[in-house]
Amino acid sequence: MRYFLVLIVLVFLFPFQSHSQDYLTSLSYNTAAPTGQTQDYISQFSWRGLSFEARTFFDTNISAGVFFGWNVFYEKLRGDFQATDSRTISGTQLRYINAFPMLVEGHYYLGEDFEVRPYFGMGVGTNRTVQRTEMGLFAINNNNWHFALAPSAGFLIPTGNYDTAIHLALRYHYAFKTKDSIDHSWLGINLGIAWMN
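and the corresponding structure tokens:
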């Protein structure tokens, strides 16, 4: 975790020295479709999430920055569940995942300033997952830190005001398996506002 914080500081300090006016911040509403083992645990689409991004530009087409997100996955299941190798219990089960990706990212942009600008990039960092299963009076918690990758693609769409743009992005989050947890993955669909200076 200490190395991740050092990377964040370097991303912000170095570029700002030579490009102090060229930066972007974005606040987005996130939805997400679970995939892989996350979908096996919770199959429902997530409508709850937020993210914040800050990017600095090395030139017109290349930026580096950070991404902080939060997605909530939830599903209510009824039926028989295997408790142990020899025992099955019946009832209602509530399943939750709170996922907190924290990434250092790089992006490459097409087009020119003040136009619709497609971009693509990659994020590397960590993902904190808080997984909880409730059944009756009992709950099982599984909280872990994961190494994470997140390729992304999106658009910055000018609003007519030179300082703001609509920000639409797709980001595939993959949090690698740990010794205590499955891997987690989902396709994030983000819609927000970007401010550029």
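(Above: one complete record from the training split.) The CA atoms of residues 126 and 147 lie 5 Å apart.
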